[in-house]
Amino acid sequence: MIAISGGMHAFVLFPIVDLFKSKSTTYIEFEMREVKKTYHRSIPRPRRRYNPPIINDTKAVNVQHRQTQFTPIKPIKNQIPKDFHQKINAPSVPGTPDIPDIGNLQVANWTPVAATESYFTKKDYFDMVRMRIESNKKYPSRARFRNIEGHVKVSFEIITKGMVQSVKVEKSSGKNILDNAAIDAVKNSSPFPLPPPSLFKLPLKLVIVIVFELT
After folding, report:
1. Are strands 204-212 and 150-158 parallel, antiparallel or unpaired?
2. Which burial class, exposed, middle or buried, applies to 179 when counting CB atoms under 10 A from its CB (0-12, 13-18, 19+)?
3. Residue 213 in contact with residue 149, Cβ under 8 Å?
4. In what order do the strands lie in the sheet with 204-212?
């Protein structure tokens, strides 16, 4: 049985094996080609326009033209008279006082207005003195060239006729050239206007600080 079974299998398998044995040779061919993609310009397409809808079932609206009624306006009567004037009387002029004959007056009899009347307070007179000294102050050219600065305290007295005396340096600036310039400023400002007798008594003692600064 075993031999019969083996023979049957051999009979069946041998023809099947011959089917898979092909005598022809199989070839596989490969070909390399360079493919170039043509360039196409991308142009945006216009948007699609839809036709507007056609509306047929519309009703016409009858608009009537409205006219405004004209209202006549009566003119205003002019109440101002044609001849409009008012009489104005001339002002009365008072009589002029009798002016004495000035031919007989002598110059020696004329007294000028005192300059002290313009100074109502002590501060007014002190401001005048300070401004007068500042206007006569001269910065020495040698000190200006060397950039020398300083403050000088000067004391002095105003006597009769506005003259000054006892001019001296109370506190030096440390530079003789500035001290001398401060003394010269006070002396060159003399004579001063007379101090008001109602505010001061002569001799009037003053102390002032003269500043020398380069700006």
Report:
1. antiparallel
2. buried
3. yes
4. 164-171, 150-158, 204-212
Compute mean pLDDT per 10 residues along the chain, 215 residues long, and list them.
80 65 63 68 66 65 65 69 60 54 45 51 91 94 92 94 93 94 94 89 92 90
* Nearest CA among 151, 184, 189 for reference residue 170: 151
Domains of the chain with bracketed CATH: 116-212 (3.30.1150.10)
DSSP letters, 103-167, are GG--GGG--PPPGGGG--SHHHHHHHHHHHHHHH----HHHHHTT--EEEEEEEEE-GGG-EEEE
Q: Are 183 and 169 in contact (CB under 8 A)?
A: yes
Under a CB-based contact definition with an 8 Å cutoff, are residues 159 and 168 in contact? no
Q: How far apart are CA 116 and CA 195, in angstroms?
A: 6
- Name the token pair of 178: 């500035």
